[in-house]
Specification:
By secondary structure, this protein is mainly β. Helix content is 12%, strand content 43%. Strands 1-2-3-4-5-6 form a 6-stranded antiparallel β-sheet, with helices on one face. The termini are far apart.
Length: 93
């Protein structure tokens, strides 16, 4: 069984477009192809292995309908160690 997201499950997959991105480095990040709520997606990690975000594609009729990105540390924390990039400074005011 995969890791649980807030309203679905993440499972490792190998969707070709994301797999191609995994071969290179994108701004010091690493992508892992996963399935998010039965749709293709990816988990994005920094070079130290900290999770930056989870992205998913909503596909219908063979076309991308939307791209979703979760960066909220509270929603990502249960998936593993987080990147410092997910921690934004608090503004007072």
């Amino acid at each position: 069984m995969g890791q649980k997201m807030s309203d679905g499950v993440i499972r490792e997959t190998s969707y070709p477009p994301l797999s191609e991105l995994q071969k290179g480095k994108l701004l010091g990040t690493r992508l892992r192809s996963v399935e998010v709520n039965a749709q293709p997606g990816s988990m994005v990690f920094n070079s130290g292995g900290g999770l930056i975000n989870v992205m998913s594609l909503d596909i219908a009729d063979g076309r991308i309908q939307s791209i979703r990105s979760v960066v909220n540390p509270e929603k990502l924390r249960h998936l593993g160690p987080l990147s410092d990039r997910t921690r934004l400074p608090h503004r007072s005011g």
